[in-house]
Design brief:
This protein is an alpha+beta fold. The protein has 2 domains: about 5-75; about 75-130, no CATH class. The protein is about 55% helix and about 15% strand. It has 4 helices and 5 strands; from the N terminus they run ααββαβββα. The strands form 2 sheets. It has a 3-stranded antiparallel sheet with strand order 3-4-5, with no helix packed on it. Strands 1-2 form a two-stranded antiparallel ribbon. A hairpin with a 6-residue loop joins strand 4 (about 115-120) and strand 5 (about 125-130). Bound molecules: zinc ion (ZN). Zinc ion binds near residues 94, 105, 121 and 123. Zinc ion binds near residues 94, 96, 121, 123 and 124.
């Protein structure tokens, strides 16, 4: 498969060559005194410049997608809590943000909370319990509080 980035670079090079030729041709048209020919060549030049802009936009978009793809290829799910990890990083990524939104959001450190241990994603507010929270006090039964 041809590398799309080198293809885009080649296309931009070809367009620059065509634009160079067009400039020279415009000079010839100017010297010939043919106003209509000169006008048409100017329009052609504008179209080439628009095309060049569009190709550069597509190249930028392609670069971003490639970067995202490279990033996703390094992300693996592992460990008992089902977290995702980016490469050799030890900080886990939020499974909700990653699976639902495709965003590699790091989770903050696990903190003690209500007798358990959890991480709270600051983006989606999902709680990940690494140790379940302990019940607070003795649970009352219906009969005990009705007496
Ligand atoms: Zn999240």
């Amino acid at each position: 498969m041809t590398d799309p980035i080198s293809t885009a670079v080649t296309i931009v090079g070809l367009l620059n060559n065509a634009l160079g030729l067009l400039k020279g041709t415009k000079e010839l048209a100017k010297n010939s005194g043919n106003a209509e020919l000169k006008e048409r060549l100017s329009e052609l030049q504008d179209h080439f410049l628009d095309l060049k802009d569009r190709i550069l936009d597509l190249k930028g978009e392609n670069d971003k997608l490639r970067e995202k793809l490279d990033q996703q290829q390094n992300i693996r799910r592992s460990g008992e809590f089902g977290y995702f990890f980016n490469g050799a990083e030890s900080d886990p990524l939020c499974p909700v943000c990653y699976e639902r939104d495709g965003k590699p959001i790091h989770l903050p450190k696990a903190i003690p909370w209500s007798g358990g241990i959890m991480r709270l994603c600051k983006v989606c507010d999902h709680q990940f319990w690494e140790k379940p929270q302990q019940p607070q006090g003795v649970a009352r039964t219906r009969s005990s509080w009705m007496e």
